[in-house]
Write a structure and sequence with these properties.
single chain, alpha+beta, 18 strands, 13-stranded mixed beta sheet, 3-stranded mixed beta sheet
Amino acid sequence: MSSKFNDDRFLARWLNNELTPEELSEFQNSEDYATYKKLITGAEALQAPSFDEEALLARIKSQQKGRLTITKRKVNYMRYAAAAIVLFAAGLIFYTTRLTPDIKTISSEVGQRHTFNLPDGSEVVLNANSSLAYSEDEWEDDIRSVQLEGEAYFKVQKGNTFSVKTNAGTVSVLGTQFTVRDVSDFFEVKCFEGSVRVESDGDVEILKPKKAVRRIGKLQLVSRDILGLSPEWLDGKTTFESVPVSQVLASLKNQYNVRFSGDNIDENLLYSGTFPHDDLDLALKIVFASLGLDYELKNDEVVIIARP
């Protein structure tokens, strides 16, 4: 708001109709006028507490000299009190607005990837059935922070610290390329370029290129080496190395929108392998053959049957 119209003396003069025609015209044509007018309208709707004005005046007169002095002080008090109320309310509206940022959410559908740029030009590729949210107000203030659910690949522009927050931990970088996956008690970060700081449940790891770290449930973070210069799912296939079968089933659901039934599989079994994103039959054959399980596909539902 304009510092000129934000002054309590100016507001007091306006409330008491003491502005010159030129000042009033300028104020009414300003962006601040509508806000203050709404505040005054709302204040007028409030009910003031009742009191015996004559009795109060007599009590004040007995302690002060001259009615003129008393009246003048009373008028000045009311002017500045009203101005203070308007200023306080205007400030409250401003800070409330700032504390309620405009959140933008971007999502990908089942079986689809979605590529987009953040306000600073950083590129994000959401894997299937994932979402990312950030505050547009914070990005205007150069606070680069996003909230991720699912899996995403980031190419971050150099600048202030860039943070990816998930339920399982926070990843902080400057300028780099990396992936973050947080799905069903499985948290994994892979670094392909630059360096990545990973903080999860009190553990902290600094990753260099071709390094990864993962946490399964509440277990400790575990580091490992990776191959390639980008995640395999950018090329239309998903690759796992010694992950719980529950993660494989979750990825099949996200890519093909299938459902699983049956209690004949131990989801804590570890799986290593690759399945394609464009052929459901082939993907199921690869996964369940390596697990030593038979399956039957009925429409969009997979029934898992253990081999005798």
